[in-house]
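Researcher: Re-running this chain for the archive, since the previous output was lost when a drive failed. Same request as before.
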Amino acid sequence: MIRSIHLTNFKCFQEERIPLNRLTVLSGGNGVGKSSVIQSLLLLRQTSDRARLLRGTVSGADGAHPLLSIKLNDEYRLSLGNSATLTNADIESDIIVLGVSADGTDPVLCRFEASNTKPTTSIACVEAPGDLLARASAFPIFQQEFHYLVAERVGPRDLQPMADQSFISTGYAGEFTAFAIAQAEARMVEQHLCIVADSSLFRVQLEAWMGRLVPGAQIFTTSHPDLNRVQMAIGRRGATAKALPPANTGFGISYALPVVVSGLLAAPGSMLIVENPEAHLHPSAQTAIGIFLASVASTGVQVLVETHSENVLNGVRLAALRDIIPHNDASFMFLSLGEGSGQPTLHPITMDKAAELTSWPPGFFDQQGADLAEMMKARRALAAQAKS
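Model: Regenerated structure tokens:
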């Protein structure tokens, strides 16, 4: 399991170590560096992909091995522009260092060269551990099976493409979700994720979990190999109306479905990263998806979530209270920026056995309280004005 991420001269981070847990929830205002944390992992993931393609090691600094060209755009749905935007504005260096650490092994630190004077749409990995792939088992980000869902997922689609994959995956934007469901039809789900006792079949548990988000939801898929497509329809258990195309059911189901499918598919020891799992969901469904992600982490999958939803946060806390996940296996990382500050401030937050948080820094899911306080103040003023 990854215990921390190391960032040097990367975007808004000058020098930072970010602790991770079995389940880590990233939160904070817009533009404070949450996405940059995830992007650093995706660049490291690309490094292992390139090394795997070369079927060998990469150390680079002495020229003994080919330099690895790491794309800044498109790969893993990245959209980082060019190399001139990657380094920290307050550091005069083209060298970025990204790394991860785990228990019982040396950290993996990779050095990248990102030119500021001659911007390019890729960066070169100029140094990495020679045994990067040999130590992949300690670092889920480097393992072949890896699940990631970007914030901008595909919306409702009646037909989705099939894919040639080394493991069943929804794709990074959920574009292969229908195909993944069709492939995993008869697959068994980890016991910790089974909320219907009479069957551990993937299809049964998928509809059970989706039913917690959208009561009675049923998912139907029909493969069309001649078109290289899988058709999907959404029904409601007990309803007399026929199942509808996803376009007729709104964005909530289409955005949440790949999250649930990915979580049910992820093997123990692998990694699942989800950006904004709450998108387009009703508050009660946001809480349910927080509970679901905690349940996924309880199977041994390392889960990293970026969210703006206090309901997802509360779902994780409820999961701890229900003994779905040990309270010390889940952590929260709140990022904030002070006035005129370019370097984010990290606020690590844990919870006790009663799911009480160890701290509640300003700006950490406190807007509802602030709004209610302002409304109460305004109402008291109106009441006083009426009396006078």
